[in-house]
């Protein structure tokens, strides 16, 4: 067959060519019209290939590459979104793959017409499910969009901000449902703790600088409170060893000389008393 583009090589000129399909060297360089013509050939062949085979994967992957321009076209509508364009293209590609897997030539519909709604729908679903700072039910996410459109329409018509009752009447909802949707809309964005304070505020810096935090000394106070009755149960020698080791910061060898015992004996005594205190604190924390 004649080549439709310089990016296509005749089946007889490439050892990896799949039977009865042209070998597309670089699908990204194929002109749009040629891509449409080639897509029809690949879709026709894809319907009779066994899923999971090498031939099937080649045909499917080539269809994805040939039609990536559809993803880029659909993504242009969302170029002003704060989400990275790479993420939008990736999500749009998922929609393209779904369209390829569900397309049927017998419907006599152009693949472009069939695929665009899939791609756009996948991108919109991505925004709806991931763009919210706080997760809310999908029903309320969709209601937010309806309320935004209704608010804009009424504001233009009335030359003022619409009331809750006016929004409810336009959308055929109760005022309670409109209020629920408006409250849920607050979850779409979240303020950063690093945001600056208002001009009326006497404090400078971000909000995070003004929020309290746990005092690390509180843990020490709690530990001392638990240790006090446990220490009262120790013998005089154990208390003396603890004082010399942790109060006077003496080494085990120095303690041994002071008490007239070996360093090894001091180590065993320290380990025993510390284990006793540790077990007592653990038992207290589980009460």
From TrEMBL:
Q: List, for all copies, the residue spans of the domain called RNA polymerase sigma-70.
A: 87-100
The record's annotation in NCBIfam families points to:
SigBFG, sigma70-ECF
Signal peptide positions (record): none
User: Per its UniProt entry, which superkingdom is the organism in?
Assistant: Bacteria
Q: Does the keyword Transcription regulation apply?
A: yes
- Tell me the PANTHER family matching this sequence: RNA POLYMERASE SIGMA-E FACTOR (PTHR30385:SF4), SIGMA FACTOR F FLAGELLAR (PTHR30385)
Keyword annotations for this protein, in alphabetical order, are:
DNA-binding, Sigma factor, Transcription, Transcription regulation
* A Pfam match: Sigma70_r4
Native organism: Streptomyces fildesensis
Q: What is this protein called?
A: RNA polymerase sigma factor SigF
């Amino acid at each position: 067959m004649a080549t439709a583009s310089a990016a296509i090589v005749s089946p007889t000129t490439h050892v990896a060519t799949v039977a009865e399909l042209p070998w597309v060297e670089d699908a990204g360089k194929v002109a749009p019209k040629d891509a449409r013509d080639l897509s029809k050939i690949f879709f026709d062949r894809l319907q009779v290939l066994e899923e999971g085979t090498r031939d099937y994967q080649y045909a499917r992957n080539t269809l994805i590459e040939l039609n990536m321009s559809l993803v880029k076209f659909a993504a242009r509508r969302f170029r002003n979104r704060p989400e990275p364009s790479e993420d939008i293209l990736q999500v749009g590609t998922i929609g393209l793959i779904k369209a390829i897997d569900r397309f049927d030539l017998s419907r006599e519909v152009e693949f472009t017409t069939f695929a665009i709604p899939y791609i756009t729908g996948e991108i919109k679903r991505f925004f709806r499910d991931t763009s919210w700072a706080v997760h809310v039910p999908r029903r309320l996410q969709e209601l937010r969009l309806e309320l935004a459109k209704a608010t804009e329409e009424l504001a233009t018509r009335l030359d003022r901000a619409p009331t809750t009752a006016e929004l409810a009447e336009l959308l055929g909802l109760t005022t309670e449902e409109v209020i629920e949707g408006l409250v849920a809309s607050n979850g779409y964005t979240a303020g950063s703790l690093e945001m600056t304070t208002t001009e009326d505020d006497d404090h400078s810096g971000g909000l995070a600088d003004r929020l309290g935090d746990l005092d690390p000394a509180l843990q020490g106070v709690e530990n001392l409170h638990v240790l006090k009755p446990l220490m009262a149960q120790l013998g005089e020698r154990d208390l003396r060893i603890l004082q010399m080791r942790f109060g006077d910061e003496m080494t085990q060898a120095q303690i041994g000389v002071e008490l007239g015992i070996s360093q090894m004996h001091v180590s065993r005594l320290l380990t025993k008393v510390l284990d006793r205190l540790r077990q007592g604190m653990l038992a207290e924390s589980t009460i």
